[in-house]
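User: Watch each token:
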Amino acid sequence: MLVIGLTGGIASGKTLISAELARLGAVIVDGDTIAREVTAAGSQGLMEISRVFGPDYLNEKGDLKRKELGALVFGDPEKLRLLNAITHPLIRREMEARIQKAGLTGEKIVVLAVPLLFEAKLDDLADEVWVVAAAKDRQLARLMRRDSLGRTAALDRIQSQMPLAEKLARADVVIDNDGEQEDTLAQVRLLWQEITAKAGNKHGE
């Protein structure tokens, strides 16, 4: 089984690429989805967040106030470090379980789609790492539009992550998402042909 780590800056286009890889036949293990699951109401992660940051970040239903917590931590590196210390081990444990399950069910290609793959030290779970690259101004515009954020809040989120240049230096494969969507998807389909040949996956035959 081949495990690929898919990462890049926030709003760089990982969702588009994950969707295409899923369509082609990969098992997608989505880091954002898992992050929500491990901080869901009643979870160990949420209880620890409430203990560290206070109950004001939970609503009346016991759910995490994600936007409010994000506003707190993305402007404060120490608070972000505290949050990551809670969530990253939980995310890693769940990812390891899903990779193991995929292996037991005979899957050939698993994609770990994780914005903080390097920051959370999850890259060691992958056989190779693909980094999605997009220019900062394009990334910023996408993030502001997608999450309804002002420029300052969006920049805080971008700057809280590892610089793209450092991610690119650690990448096995770089996907350029600065052009048209179809150009990006064409890169993904070509990479799929290469990895399915490597993995002996029936989808590549």
